[in-house]
Amino acid sequence: MKRTLLWGALCALAVTSAWGADLAQVREKGVLRVAVYKDFPPYSYAENGRYTGLDVELARALAERLGVALALEPITASDESVQDDLRNGVWKGHYLGWGGADVMLHVPVDPALQAEVRQVALFGPYYREHLAVARRTDALPTLDSLDAFRHTRVGVEFRTLGDQLLLSAAGGAYIPQVVHFRSATQACAAFRAGEVPALLAQRGEVEQCVGTARDGIAVAPLPAAQAERLGWDVGMAVKADDEALRGALAEALAGLRRDGTLAAVLARYHLGAELIASAGGG
Amino acid sequence: MTDSAFACRLPLSRLGAALALLLAGASAGAGVTDQDIANDAQTPGDVLSWGMGLQGQRYSPLTRINADTVKDLVPAWSFSYGGEKQRGQEAQPLIYNGKIFVTASYSRLFAVDAHTGAKLWQYDHRLPDGILPCCDVVNRGAALYDNLVIFSTLDAQLVALDQDTGKVVWKEKLDDYKEGYSNTAAPIIVKGKVITGVSGGEFGVVGRVDARDAKTGKLVWTRPVLEGYMGYMVKDGQKVENGVTGTPGTSWAGDMWKTGGGATWLGGYYDAETNLVFIGTGNPAPWNSHLRPGDNLYTASTLAIDPDTGTIKWHYQSTPNDSWDFDGVNEFVSFDLKKDGKVIKAGAKADRNGYFYVLDRTNGQLISASPFVTKQTWTSGIDPKTGRPIETGNRPGDPTKAADGKKGESVFAVPGFLGAKNWMPMAYNRDTGLFYVPANEWGMDIWNEPIAYKKGAAYLGAGFTIKPLYEDYIGALRAVDPATGKIVWEYKNPAPLWGGVLTTAGNLVFTGTPEGFLKAFDARTGKEVWKFQTGSGVVGCPVTWEMDGEQYIAVPSGWGGAVPLWGGEVAKRVNYLNQGGSLWVFKLHKA
């Protein structure tokens, strides 16, 4: 808990030192530097020594539309808050020398978050995220409420929203059935191996885990009263004063929406077009 | 203590110094032995261990610099760490064989000629991308053994360097920095073994104590501090099971223990009389206590561990089911408690939670617990029978209950999350019988946030901010009588105190301030008798030793650590302070 504000406070005191590359500089250098999270499948992750994922494909498409090359800047996620990531990834860079890209992807586009981080502009929502459960239908034929987890084991990545909801619901009644993993990937492996009959994670993570092998497996949104409201828009962030870059990226994204590229990218990760975030946010 | 006791200490200390010099001379090249380390507190010619003796009293028998002569204390030399890597300098220097070994921010280590301040060598640990230290890039010091100087790094390695050349002799990985592990505490050497804890953020780090062969770095035993984990010993090169920690399933629900925190991030001390290593454990994880019902053993505790086997002999949990970030890591200092005509083998700890605990160090039984700060809201006291806090119900709310989308009600809790005392080690003076505790007076507002985000995903978090309790000061150096729990004197400091304390037979107490001063106080009265402006905040640990018939004081200078990372009202009191990085050495001016 101590670290939720940590560093964040530091940034509040600091003045943005580098008025980073705006659009003209991006075009001049011919490179768009894009921060994505490290080890975050299916959004951004290394596979056979190469970075790939939904966010990475989108980054490539955006750079193409801008007519520049793509330089990925995979960043380590803070275990505290997105505010830290925005400082490291976009507006200041990490003090050990990494980060400080032109734009960061997979940033929640939320007015409340925007109000807290004035050094960046949040815009360009491209995906609507929510929590989902994959379950083996023989073990759990229906899933009408979280109460199924009074008796059925469920795998979850620790310290995530899904974990919090499971631990806090029903006065802690589900805690004995919650099986914690260090990552969604490990939780997925346990689900696929049959060690846990259910998996709770972000929709994109669940869909990638299930993939095309759907026999005897059902995927559905988390059946919790607040789950619907807890969905969030995923978009991008640039430094607050990089207005021209922001405009160009928004225009590029609009183009990717129009020509079906965005839907095609999502589809490659088993995500339907209904999960494209509505434009206009940010 | 009487004047006569004071007077007869003088020749003794000279004898000690002469002996130490003799030994140093005779043993040049022989290296630091277990016997040298065991005698560290009695040999003023050197400083070989964290705590100036493994009991951690930070007491020196030297008297040349005393309450009368300290006015003539002047700089002998100053050494700059150089580079752009400033930030917090929290280390305790070590002195051996005419050399000073001091660690610095960003996992650096310097060897400096103790006579001249000339640099002998410098080791810059190569830090990988992707480390995310939680609380500044500090390092608190090294350990000496044989011809080695051993220290921990931000990427969770243990590095042993040759004292003469600075070349790496061995290097061992404590754990995986990619999993959030790090280490900033000073190791200690107990009977040829280097003992370390681990530090790291909240992200899945499991507290642990390791013992390695100090000459090779090879693991001897490892003891996780969370109930349910298996400990291991290495026999004939094989890791063999060495008993589960605690009694599984008694103080955690479900599998919450697996990722339950308890980082041992401040390292430990050792007492030869009881043959126990005393090491504190951090707060449990996740920080929201509503998600982990139970006492959550052994988080927020002091553990007494057998250094030969790695088994836990006793534990004392200061904050069961912690909800306020009251790490239990603080140092447990062994001392002889004189009470009601008896001498008790005791130990004392000034906890983050605001209480000064005195325990029987042979068994961990509570002798007394008294507040050492002016206010605390979480408990009305410590039950002397059970040793448990009597809670007032001043717990922060459950953030997951804020899922209705509204900002929750704010709770004001004291002490704040940086603790009534943080990492900075206290000192015990055998002559005055008093502990000198660097304390801070602050509280925190905590409220539930409607929604927060982590790694691009929604999260139910809390907002909080640390607040000073008083207009005129945050820091307070307090002299605590362990027999009564009474505060005998106090010195108030505008900025929070963040540096270690040193006390001497010269009736002096030394500590630094973020404002840049190294200060000396009369150990009996608390009167400020000397100060020197070092140019940046002093958050390191002062030490003293004798060399060529003169007494020296050394302290690192360089503002940083966790305090300046925070905003709110506290930031306004410290944001004008400049960073630095240097070692200052003082001695008495000769007319």
UniProtKB/TrEMBL annotation, chain A:
The keyword Signal applies. GO terms for cellular component: cell envelope. It is found in: Cell envelope. Residues 31-274 form the Solute-binding protein family 3/N-terminal domain. Keywords: Signal. Residues 1-20 form the signal peptide. PROSITE patterns: SBP_BACTERIAL_3. InterPro entries: SBP_3_CS, Solute-binding_3/MltF_N. PANTHER family: MEMBRANE-BOUND LYTIC MUREIN TRANSGLYCOSYLASE F. Belongs to the bacterial solute-binding protein 3 family. This is Amino acid ABC transporter substrate-binding protein (PAAT family).
UniProtKB/TrEMBL annotation, chain B:
Disulfide bonds join 134-135. It comes from Plasticicumulans lactativorans. Keywords: Calcium, Disulfide bond, Metal-binding, Oxidoreductase, Periplasm, PQQ, Signal. Binds 1 Ca(2+) ion per subunit. Binds 1 PQQ group per subunit. Its cofactor is Ca(2+); pyrroloquinoline quinone. It is found in: Periplasm. Ca(2+) binds at residues 202, 283, 325. GO terms for molecular function: calcium ion binding; heme binding; oxidoreductase activity, acting on CH-OH group of donors; pyrroloquinoline quinone binding. Transmembrane segments: none annotated. The active site is at 325 (proton acceptor). Pyrroloquinoline quinone binds at residues 90, 140, 184, 422-423. Belongs to the bacterial PQQ dehydrogenase family. This is Alcohol dehydrogenase (Cytochrome c). Residues 1-30 form the signal peptide. Residues 50-367, 471-553 form the Pyrrolo-quinoline quinone repeat domain. Its main location: periplasm. Residues 378-406 are annotated as: Disordered.
